[in-house]
Each structure stands twice: as structure tokens, then as C-alpha cells.
Amino acid sequence: MNRLQGRTAVVTAAAQGIGRGVVERFVAEGAQVWAVDLNADALSELDGVEGVTTAACDVTDAEALAELARRTGPIDALFNGVGFVHVGALLETTAAELDASFRLNVGTAFAATAAFLPGMLEAGSGSIITMSSVQSSIRGFPNRLAYATSKAAIIGFTKSVAADYAARGIRCNAIAPSAVDTPSMRARIDAMPDPERAAADFASRQPVGRMGTPEDIAALAAYLASDESSFTTGSVVVIDGGASS
Predict the structure, then answer these.
(1) How far, in Å, CA of 99 to CA of 96, rounded?
(2) pLDDT 10s digits, 64-86
(3) Which of 26, 79, 116, 147 is catalytic?
């Protein structure tokens, strides 16, 4: 523990699920964390938590992010956690839906990284961590055209940022999980005709026999934010219970 002592981190999509897990793990590791989310009501659950500063912010808004970066000052780690799962094959997906998936899944990572990277460059160090998925260029799943395409783009984004700024002390990596048991996942499961069967099907995709947890992802994010991963950049770290093996 305390691998992030004295560090400052920004976590987007911090109000619940993976983002919330990352906030809690980063704080446990000693970081001062800016927890960022558009949902101010859900985010308020973190108000008063030691080591956490909450900030309601629309991360699709470059000006709002620039203002947030002025408030935080230079940071040591950025976790890009915003994501949206569109369901549908190609012929069931409109151009507008594809655009929306890119705006949320790729555009937010682009905008947040653009806002906080200058401070990292000035300091000469920084770790950028972005959520991708095994549903990307790693593996295809049915009815995930827009989602998988956008998450594949995150892999290209990650490798490009890593290549451009490695010599200036910046590391950029992506996390690629399979199914993770989050509130948004549970909402999708509960909306299905047979939620119990759907939950079992999601769990069975992983040879280990369960979905991942936010804590599983947060543990990996803490490693990538810490000096223990100082030789790791441009990597896409698969954490999927064997689903893509």
C-alpha cells in the first residue's frame, strides 16, 4: 500500500462502478484524488471522504475540463473511465449512434488527456490510464459494433500518446476487461427478459466462472499509476478471467 503517497490523480466517471473503485483504491494507496463525474447527485456520496475532492464536470466539454485542470494544478495520474455500451450489429446501428459512441468512449479520453497532459509534461512525468475492452481489436462479440469499434480506437489512442510522449516522462496504457459487475452492467442485465439467466451467461463468458469486479480493475489501475510500472507504456493490459485466451 501507499504506492501513490504524495501523488495527485484525476478519475473520471468516478461516481460508481469501475471509476468509484479506482477512486477508493487510489486513496487507499495514499493519493489525493479528484473524483469527476457528470452525475452530481451520485458523486456527492464521495463528499467528505478523506483524500477525495469531488468535481461535477461534463468531460465532453473541453472548456470545463480546462477549468478543472486549472483547479487541480499538475497531476500525476489520469484515469479515463467514461464509457457507454451501445448494443447492436452493423445493420442495427445508425451513423448517429456510432458517432455518439465515439464521442463518449473516445472523445472524452481525448479531451481529458489534452487538458491534463500539459501539466504532466511540465512536471516531466505522468501516467495516463484509459479504459478499453476485450470487445475491441482483441476479440469480437455479437451486437457490439459501435462499442467495439470505439474501444479499438482507444487502443490506437493509447499507443499513439505513448509513442509521442515516452521520451518526456509520460506513460500511457489501456485496461481491457471483459464483463465487469457494475451498476450499469446490472441495469442492462435487469432489463433483459430473464435477468437470472443473463447474469449466469455473462459470468460464464469468463473461464474463471465470474464477472470481474471494480476492485479487480482498480488494483490494476493502481499498479499502472505507480512507479512499479515505470517500464510499462503503450500497453493494453487484458484483465478478463481468461475470456480472450
Answers:
(1) 5
(2) 999 999 999 999 999 999 999 99
(3) 147
Question: Whole domain around residue 50: which residue ranges?
Answer: 8-177+212-238
Active site residue 165: no
Residue type, 56: A
Please answer whether residues 122 and 74 qualify as being in contact, where contact means their C-beta atoms are separated by less than 8 angstroms.
yes
Residue 206 lies inside a defined structural domain of this protein = no
Within a domain: 139: yes
Residue with cell 493494453: 236
3-class secondary structure per residue, 56-80: ECCCCCHHHHHHHHHHHCCCCEEEE
Q: What is the CATH number of the domain that holds 62?
A: 3.40.50.720
Q: What total of structural domains would you count in the chain?
A: 1
For residues 171 and 157, give the distance between their C-alpha atoms in angstroms, rounded to a whole number. Answer: 13
- Residue 21 belongs to some domain of the structure: yes
The half-sphere exposure of 171 on its side-chain side, counting CA atoms within 13 A, is 23
Q: Does residue 36 lie in a domain region? A: yes
Residue 39: how many CB atoms within 10 A of its CB?
12
Stretch among 31-45, 49-63, 192-206 having the lowest mean pLDDT: 192-206
pTM for the full predicted model = 0.96
In three-state secondary structure terms, 196 is helix
